[in-house]
């Protein structure tokens, strides 16, 4: 049956951005190790990881970053430099490689200092000195360079094992047990691994990109009102011209919704849709 596109003339967004912090966690694995993002068996280490735009799912400004500590009773705080860049590269690959000067120049140093280590478990979070803008249309590469060796009780961090393709790679100075003198450089050889560190990104603002009329559709089919979007919808509320709520649906968690219990009465309606990241889109139609 031919779909009838309804009038989308009345559109309101939550400005161009949302206020308040939104945390996005990528990785839910429970395995742990001392090799990434910081290999504190060594004086110098590095971990490069890719987190895809689909995994992150939102666009906006990252203001904080955290890694999930699993164990370790040392309270020594490792010295780190954290870099970020947007990339079209979706996987690390299988072969050893060097990042190289040109690719490294594309990185932005977002944090230089110590990684918190004041608890045996939990998210160890740093506030970025240089907030970094992320677009869900691209992938995010994160490079962590460590320069602290911890003799005992070193922190272990949780990771998720990649499926199909390696998404992370590591470097160490080769002198296990401290005392190494081979600091990481962009020419250092990185070894791809299956274990990618779980990461939590805190967005100070979220862009409205990805939840607009450009990739959302309100239409009738089979006598019912439908809504389809490129992003996951959490709830829908429908109002009449007097502002009275005539229909609502919560806990949707889908990109394709049928307002099956809404009765057609040939009236002007305002359909307010909220996505999984609390962004809203309001559409005006007659149904």
TrEMBL record:
Superkingdom as given in the UniProt entry = Bacteria
NCBIfam families of this UniProt entry? T9SS_Cterm_ChiA
Designated name of the protein: Uncharacterized protein
Query: Which species does the entry assign this protein to?
Result: Flavobacterium akiainvivens
